[in-house]
């Protein structure tokens, strides 16, 4: 038995030593941004840190807990001079991080008062393959939209810098969310992208659909009253929020008709049930002919 145990244990100890060494490298919090609905953004810098779109890191804050490591998806783009994560306050550890960062205080916080942070990573995910396709479908459910913040930022930087060498030509973005408050922090990014694309006369580059899957009677009445306004009452975008869940079969057939003979990447960050649905649709809507349309499914579950 010991022959089978020693090898894995040795690899495990090596991994722990590497994590300990990486956690000792200095990380500087350059900015803390408070977003609506108790979501904070930590912008950080670390010497030698290199990332790709959609990757994630493990974060430890000794001021909150000396042993706990928590995974967070990077929401910054590789082209930016910092890396960032968005943290939604939903438990004891995140509540503690919120407090030690001074977010519970009204006055401005000095940078030297911010807590020490240890970072391990980044680690790869399926989202890194976005730039391997000419057409992609990005599907985020709830807080699963965070990797696509990094993707959309990076795509836009690459598009503005050198659009001719960018293989990616069309993005279909879907965001499913139960609560209207969860739209608030991410809608700012979409508003910026929407305005910049219109300035460059390329509004068709990004096609996005936002679905609200939960609402009450009071909210429904408010939505109806303001439905005719130029901008959406929830997100402030020109694209109106849709209510309910997407008809995935229709969506796949429409995209397949728009891009015949293409390899289309389908990227999901969401629950297992939605992953099963999208995987089945990817298979059923792919043609047997190698020259036909093919949907390639990639997922990250939470």
UniProtKB/TrEMBL annotation:
Keywords: Cell membrane, Electron transport, FAD, Flavoprotein, Glycoprotein, Heme, Ion channel, Ion transport, Iron, Isopeptide bond, Membrane, Metal-binding, NADP, Oxidoreductase, Phosphoprotein, Transmembrane, Transmembrane helix, Transport, Ubl conjugation, Voltage-gated channel. One of its GO terms (molecular function) is metal ion binding. It is found in: Cell membrane. One of its GO terms (cellular component) is monoatomic ion channel complex. The keyword ATP-binding does not apply. InterPro entries: Cyt_b245_heavy_chain, FAD-bd_8, FAD-bd_FR_type, Fe_red_NAD-bd_6, FNR_nucleotide-bd, RBOH/FRE, Riboflavin_synthase-like_b-brl. PROSITE patterns: FAD_FR (PS51384). It is a multi-pass membrane protein. Residues 19-129 form the FAD-binding FR-type domain. Its cofactor is FAD. Its main location: membrane. GO terms for biological process: defense response; monoatomic ion transmembrane transport; superoxide anion generation. It catalyses: NADPH + 2 O2 = 2 superoxide + NADP(+) + H(+). The keyword Plastid does not apply. Transmembrane segments: none annotated. PANTHER family: CYTOCHROME B-245 HEAVY CHAIN (PTHR11972:SF60), NADPH OXIDASE (PTHR11972). This is NADPH oxidase 2. It comes from Edolisoma coerulescens.
């Amino acid at each position: 038995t010991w022959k089978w145990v020693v090898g894995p244990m040795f690899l495990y100890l090596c991994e722990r030593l590497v994590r300990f060494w990486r956690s000792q490298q200095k990380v500087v919090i350059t900015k803390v941004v408070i977003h609506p609905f108790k979501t904070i953004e930590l912008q950080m810098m670390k010497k030698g840190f290199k990332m790709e779109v959609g990757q994630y890191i493990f974060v430890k804050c000794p001021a909150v807990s000396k042993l706990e490591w928590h995974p967070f998806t990077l929401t910054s783009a590789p082209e930016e001079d910092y890396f960032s994560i968005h943290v939604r306050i939903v438990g004891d550890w995140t509540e503690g991080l919120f407090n030690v960062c001074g977010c519970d205080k009204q006055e401005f916080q000095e940078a030297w008062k911010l807590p020490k942070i240890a970072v391990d990573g980044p680690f790869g995910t399926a989202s890194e393959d976005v730039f391997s396709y000419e057409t992609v479908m990005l599907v985020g459910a709830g807080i699963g939209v965070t990797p696509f913040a990094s993707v959309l930022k990076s795509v836009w930087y690459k598009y503005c810098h050198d659009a001719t060498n960018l293989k990616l030509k069309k993005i279909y973005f879907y965001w499913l969310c139960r609560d209207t408050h969860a739209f608030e922090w991410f809608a700012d990014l979409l508003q910026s992208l929407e305005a910049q694309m219109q300035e460059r006369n390329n509004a068709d580059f990004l096609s996005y659909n936002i679905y609200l899957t939960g609402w009450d009677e009071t909210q429904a009445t408010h939505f109806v009253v303001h439905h005719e306004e130029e901008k959406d009452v929830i997100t402030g975008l020109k694209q109106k929020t849709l209510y309910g869940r997407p008809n995935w079969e229709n969506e796949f057939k429409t995209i397949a008709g728009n891009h015949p003979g293409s390899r289309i990447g389908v990227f999901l960050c969401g629950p297992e049930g939605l992953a099963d649905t999208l995987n089945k649709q990817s298979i059923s809507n792919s043609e047997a002919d190698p020259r036909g349309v093919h949907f390639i499914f990639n997922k990250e579950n939470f």
